[in-house]
Design a protein that fits this description.
homodimer, mainly alpha, Arc Repressor Mutant, subunit A, Tetracycline Repressor, domain 2, 12 helices, DNA-binding
Chain lengths: 241, 241
DNA sequence: CCTCCGCTGTGTACAACGTATTGGTGAGAT
DNA sequence: ATCTCACCAATACGTTGTACACAGCGGAGG
């Protein structure tokens, strides 16, 4: 009866780090994670149900609980799993490293849009792969004469911008996909009954002016990089580096 | 089942046993919204279930559906309701307006921490009060010689940073509260078994250095404003305004 | 060889959720 | 006085996360 359940405080990762208990099992954290990610990628996060996951793995509904203590654990495992694909190039200056961090994160979130729908606890859980990325990014900020607080402020500013921007970008993308529109122009002109209605009230002249004269409304990448450059330029200006 | 009304000899007591006659028009979108917000503020977003809401309103479980078409609608209603408290001062320069937008949003999210846990669709839904804020913020960017795309890029950069930063800040705060620690120092030194474990691996020297030498780890406001200044400075630098 | 033990996956069960549906009741229009 | 319909009640269904007890089987000790 001395299972890991007796030590609830022990983090998931501690368990995973210990040598694999038995090479004979049909299930493994790896298999659980890949199956869950596959479901989420294909059908969205809502489709990731413990039962659905078990079905995907060809086991009984309760079987995955041997490897994850609950759904929260599962989400953390999924996050860690996909962040394994995010690799930061080394040997770059701090700015290029931060830029790469941002662009790579964007790519990852676009490949796994469900990452932007996670409950915040799972979103910023301290999984090994995420820790490794943070470590690498922080270390690129050493040797610039910054104190620890300043270094972290840089990392966090970039990270905050990226997540905020991607939450928005992905929400718009989801909205479009869910409505069956693939093209952004149609989105703006025909989509949101919401938006139409708001505009008809005539209460938002500046907004309306934007809608009718802007030319990069659909260039998500330009929008992302423009904002990112603001952040990076501001770091240069604020810290004189 | 025939009602008691069909039985003329029904004693008074029988009728009194039944739930109070209930005056008509007990519900309204306003009452629904305030009740839901009250629950979320007091017990977190998870406590906001349709049944709980109905109980709070003293009404049958399905009653609120007369005013909101489902739970998504309810969340939108809640968002709009609390954003009514966010007022942007007019007659300020663009930078002070953006700054006020950020600080006021932070205050709002700290007062209603569940705002940071909303599913993204509800988070950026186009509710009237949110539209009004966007309109006001955008109009503060007019007359600077910016085209529509640039104006929107400024607004979105600030907004993205704010939401990303607050997601993080609130997640940390939730973590602390949920563990019963009120003080940040304890948090870092004793909290997350996760963090402890990660540090014990010795794989994150830069991170560890931060933890041991930083002095503003608990100064959430400083962190927020520092990052915000990066963004604003970067806008100045990037757009030359 | 047999026997026991502990890890692994199974089966069943339950409470809580969102919400479809149907029914009764009273306020205002006719 | 009657009709009508907005309002709320009552009940029920399907799905979810997960607690709990049990079965099969591989390797250690005799």
């Amino acid at each position: 009866m001395a299972t890991e359940k007796d030590n609830p405080g022990e983090p998931l990762w501690a368990r995973l780090e210990r040598p694999a208990p038995a090479p004979r099992q049909t299930l493994s954290p790896q298999r659980v994670a890949t199956a869950a990610v596959k479901i989420a990628d294909a059908e969205g996060l809502d489709a990731v149900t413990m039962r659905r996951l078990a079905t995907e793995l060809g086991v009984a509904p309760m079987a995955p609980y041997r490897y994850v203590s609950g759904k929260d654990d599962l989400l953390e495992l999924m996050v860690n799993h996909v962040y394994d694909d995010l690799r930061l190039p080394g040997n770059l200056g701090w700015r290029e490293t931060m830029r790469a961090l941002a662009l790579q994160t964007r790519k990852l979130l676009l490949r796994h849009v469900w990452l932007a729908q996670l409950p915040p606890t799972a979103m910023l859980s301290l999984t090994p792969n995420r820790m490794a990325i943070a470590e690498k990014a922080l270390s690129a900020l050493e040797g610039l004469g910054l104190d620890a607080d300043a270094m972290m402020s840089v990392f966090r500013a970039v990270d905050a911008y990226v997540h905020g921007a991607m939450t928005y970008e992905i929400a718009v993308q989801n909205l479009m996909r869910q409505q069956g529109w693939s093209d952004g122009g149609k989105l703006r002109s025909e989509l949101a009954p919401q938006m139409i209605w708001h505009m008809q009230t005539g209460r938002y002249p500046t907004f309306q002016h934007y809608l009718s004269t802007a030319t990069r409304k659909d260039d998500a990448r330009w929008q992302f990089e423009t904002g990112l450059d603001y952040v990076l330029d501001g770091i240069v200006a604020g810290l004189d580096i």
